[in-house]
Specification:
Layout (H helix, E strand, L loop, with lengths): L9 E5 L5 H17 L4 E6 L18 H12 L2 E5 L15 E4 L2 H9 L6 E4 L5 H10 L4 E3 L1 E6 L2 E5 L8 E9 L3 H12 L4 E9 L5 H7 L5 E4 L7 E3 L2 H7 L9
Parallel strand pairs: 1-2, 2-3, 3-4, 5-6, 5-9, 9-10, 10-11, 11-12
Antiparallel strand pairs: 7-8
Helix pairs in contact: 3-4, 5-6
Bound molecules: ribose-5-phosphate.
The site of ribose-5-phosphate has 13 residues, from strand 9 and helix 5.
Length: about 250
């Protein structure tokens, strides 16, 4: 690997770290090359930051991968900018890393305002409540959150509260990996006689079989933010990141 950097310049490395095991090593090597080339500051823009969900030891013998990742990136970068890093039990991003954790709520709300309403916005678990409330409120839509219990890797139970009178629902979540959470939420909505169910996720990880699982559960439209390249990408986050980096697009005329 070789980087061509101007000494004294601020280097911004943009890399979505899905498929992390393949990407982390060269990301770390690039920071060393940038430092040696004289970059005055190194910022990592990782729209998706991996290993953030394992924020505690759920079962004896497990690592706390969130901390391991943070320690590694802190040694390499002066600043990390990411989107929805799933910090449900870590109160502040600053406790993990210098930089910023951005929210995609406003981008999703802007997309939602352009859809035909009314739609009840559904978060699968109580942890998602502040996020779901803020995006639904910005889109002037009713919202609920379910109570989710994860029984095993691919088994979850979701109970929904009484739903407002709506024929359509939009499930929103920060990540879809196995797709089980969205599929179980969709089945619960179908049992509650919701006629049309769509889903939007921020990070489209979609492990093998996830999309089929979600479709089989009755989700018609499945969309995502573009933090991970995927054919479901429909909501752009570039402007959000550019603004966080202090970039102001030139005014027309
Ligand atoms: C959990 O708290 C997250 O917000 C997601 O609901 C979860 O990680 C989704 O994973 P999966 O698609 O494997 O159910």
């Amino acid at each position: 690997m070789r980087v061509d950097a101007d000494p004294g310049h601020h280097a911004i490395l943009v890399r979505s770290l899905h498929e992390p095991n393949a990407k982390l090593v060269d990301t770390v090597l690039a920071t060393d090359a940038l430092r040696r080339a004289g970059a005055s500051q190194r910022t990592l823009v990782a729209p998706y930051l991996p290993y953030m969900r394992q924020d505690t030891v759920f079962h004896p013998g497990e690592p706390v991968s969130q901390r391991v990742m943070a320690d590694c990136l802190r040694r390499c970068f002066d600043r990390v900018v990411t989107i929805e890093p799933h910090l449900h039990r870590t109160p502040r991003f600053a406790d993990l890393l210098p930089g910023r954790a951005l929210t995609a709520a406003a981008a999703i709300a802007a997309w939602l305002r352009r859809q035909r309403g009314p739609v009840v916005v559904v978060g699968p678990d109580e942890e998602s409540q502040p996020w779901v409330r803020s995006l639904a409120t910005a889109a002037a839509m009713p919202w609920v959150v379910g109570r989710k219990q994860r029984l095993a890797d691919r088994r979850v139970r979701i109970e929904l509260p009484p739903l407002p009178a709506c024929r359509s629902a939009l499930i929103v979540d920060d990540i879809a990996s196995s797709g089980v959470t969205i599929a179980v939420a969709a089945r619960a909505l179908a049992r509650a006689n919701i006629g049309r169910i769509d889903a939007v996720v921020v990070h489209a990880i979609f492990a093998r079989g996830a999309e089929q699982r979600i479709r089989r559960a009755g989700v018609r439209r499945l969309l995502s933010c573009d933090t991970i390249p995927h054919h479901t990408n429909a909501i752009g986050c570039a402007e959000l990141i550019a603004t966080a980096l202090g970039y102001r697009p030139p005014r027309n005329g």
